[in-house]
Amino acid sequence: MIATSPVLSLTGIHKVFGGVIAIQDFSLDLYAGEIVALVGDNGAGKSTLIKLISGVHRPTAGDIRLDGESVALVDASSARSMGIEVVYQDLALAHEQTVYMNMFLGRELTRKPFGLLDRERMRRESQSLVEELDVRIPSVNSRIRDLSGGQRQGIAIARATHWASKLILLDEPTAALGVAETARVEELVASLKERDLAILLVSHSLDQVFRLSDRICVLRCGEQIGVRRSIETDRNEIVSMITGVHA
Amino acid sequence: MNLPGGPNHRPTDRSIPADRAMTPAIQRLRSLDLQRSVIYFGFLGIFLFFAVTLHDDGFLTSRNLTNIVLQTAPATVMAIGLVFALSAGEIDLSFGSIVAVSALSAAVAMQSYPMFVGVLAGLGAGIAIGCMNGVLVAYLRLPSFLVTLATMGLFAGIARSMTDLRSIPVVHDGFTGFFGSGKLFSIPSLVLWTVAAVIVGHVVYRHTRFGAHVLAVGDNAHAAQVSGIKVSRVRVHVLTLCGATAGLAGLLYAGRLQAAKYTLGESDLMTVIAAVIIGGTALNGGRGSVVGALLGSLLMGMLNNGLILMGLRVSDQMIVRGLIILVAVAVSLRDGNR
User: Residue B184 to residues B117, B119, B132, B188, B191: CA-CA distances in angstroms?
Assistant: First the structure.
């Protein structure tokens, strides 16, 4: 089930913001086809870690390897060009634009010879993607503002899936959703494992973490407390790792 | 769905079919855009109203209708530039002053140099001022409303001081023909400029990556940024484009009136902004229409023309025009933003 060499390998990552240590000595391997959950209290360093992997921040020290090769993620575009996609908590969708234009936001397809937008192909590819992932929307011509929260989340995840070749970072994918929509998005996330992508999931919901993840990595005050296989641990252990209080 | 347990409340049954209840019919009905059609109905309504009430005053004569198009040509060109700026979430208030500076630059240059120098001077002034607006907005992170409010005053003053309030005649036949009274295959050049500007504007707006990026930046700048769109560059480009269209409008005024004066473009601010908003462009970005802006501009021209033909005094014209704009803007904004 798990490939032999990691897709993403973080070793000895440190991040300091003006004397304040945000992340210290963090190491983690992510393999294709697995979901690793990143949990911790507010301010534990989850967001910082996401920003380090997506190229928004650069580590003060430490090594980031993609498929075994050391890489410098200088900005968000360089991370994207290496196959890392982020689904932001705010989804980063343009609400007045259509589903298919959002799928290709910043990477619009054009047609020769005049370099005009190839709307037909963008529609077609978006259509087949939402069908493949079973994201239920009225049409790829719908505007984002006319979709429900769950549908928007589905579009954001589908977009990341379309462009990611290695890794997807999911930041609180269901924080704003109702019960049924949460279930639907969780199904979608679970289905991504079959696409041979590595998935790093940040979530505050431990129930969700246990439902979805293969492994759980706990952060506390910038410190890596430990990594557990989800089937070999339980809620109590994770909670005590997050809080530092032993039951 | 909003349980007291909060957003992280655990779904107890994972087999719940989600989103199925959203019927496509309702979705389609909701996305049907009333706003886009308002301009067409408004345009048609006012046209018919004047056609009936002013029939005996010659509103429907081809001469009068052509006149409306000729008179609105500069405003239409500027409206197209403004569609891009508003769509990117910016605004330009300085285009009226740019018109005067551009027209005067061209007129002064042509007093001693050939036509193409004048054209370059006029367009160049517009592009330079627009670019300055854009750089101040994008890189100093100042709101475009305030930046262009300031440059509006600044360049209005510069236009006045350029020639000490004097009007400069434009006697170059090639220039006045090309930008003003000339004809090609018996089509007036101002009509050709309008058509060309609308076609180019529409294609760039709807069918290029630049147009898509403009809309994305105005819609959600953060999303555009993380999607790799160079947000600051887009902001500079749209404001430069506004300056360029104002520069062209200055040339069109100078060509038609065969003179340049600091007052050119002075009264266009309200007309052009109203034309663009009535034409279905959102004031806060992310949505717009070049064709709508054309119709909006023609509608404003029709109003001017009709109110004059009705024999209203200038003060009454201003009052009626203000009220009609108020109603039109209210209607188009209400439908758009729900």
Answer: 23, 19, 36, 6, 10
Q: What is the pLDDT of residue B334?
A: 64
Q: Which of A175, A183, A207 sits opposite B7 (nearest CB)?
A: A175
- Whether residue A175 has pLDDT greater than 90: no
Q: Distance (Å, rounded) from C-alpha A218 to C-alpha A235?
A: 12
Flag whether residue B284 sits within 8 Å of chain A, measured between CB atoms. no
Decide: B244 and B118 in contact? Cβ < 8 Å: no
Per-residue pLDDT at B18 = 41
Which of A106, A146, A177 is opposite residue B31, by nearest beta carbon? A146
The whole-number average pLDDT for the span A90-107 is 92
B31 touching A (Cβ < 8 Å):
yes
Q: pLDDT at position A112, please?
A: 85
Is A1 inside any structural domain?
no
Residues of chain B with pLDDT under 70: 1-36, 332-338
pLDDT in tens, A42-79: 888 888 888 889 888 888 888 899 888 888 888 878 88
**CATH number for A185:** 3.40.50.300
Give CA–CA dist B126/B240, Å, rounded.
Answer: 8
What pLDDT is recorded for position B2?
40
Contacts with B196 (C-beta within 8 Å, 6 or more apart), sequence order:
none
Q: Report the alpha-carbon distance of residue A46 to residue A52 in Å, rounded.
A: 10
- What pLDDT is attached to residue B24? 52
Please report where in the chains the tokens 């370099």 appear, as a residue.
A115
Convert the pLDDT of each residue in B273-291 to its tens digit: 989 988 888 888 899 999 9
User: What pLDDT was estimated at residue A37?
Assistant: 93
Q: Which fold has domain B34-337?
A: ABC transporter involved in vitamin B12 uptake, BtuC (1.10.3470)
Subunit contact A181:B31, Cβ cutoff 8 A? no
Alpha-carbon span B274 to B297, nearest angstrom: 8
> Chain B closest CA to A176's CA: distance in Å?
6
Cα–Cα separations (whole angstroms), residue A226 to A211, A220, A222: 19, 10, 12
Domain assignment present for A167: yes
> A213 is in which domain, residue-wise?
8-43+54-243
Asked if the C-beta of B226 comes within 8 angstroms of chain A's C-beta atoms, the answer is: yes
Residue A185 has pLDDT above 60, yes or no: yes
B contacts of A90 (beta carbons < 8 Å): 222
B209: its two tokens: 């990556």
Residue B114 preceded by cis peptide, ω within 30: no
Contact B22 A107 (CB under 8 A): no
User: What 3-state DSSP class applies to B156?
Assistant: helix
Structural domain total, chain A: 1
Question: Residue B227 — φ and ψ, nearest 5°?
Answer: -90, 5
* Among the partner residues A95, A117, A174, nearest to B207 by beta-carbon distance: A117
Q: How far is CA B276 from the centre of its chain?
A: 5
Summarised one tens digit per residue, pLDDT across range B202-238 is 999 999 999 999 999 999 999 998 888 999 999 999 9
Residue A34 lies in a domain: yes
Of B253, B270, B213, nearest in space to B106 by CA = B253
The amino acid present at A217, given as its one-letter code, is C
Residue B155 tokens, joined? 């360049």
pLDDT at residue B77, rounded to an integer: 97
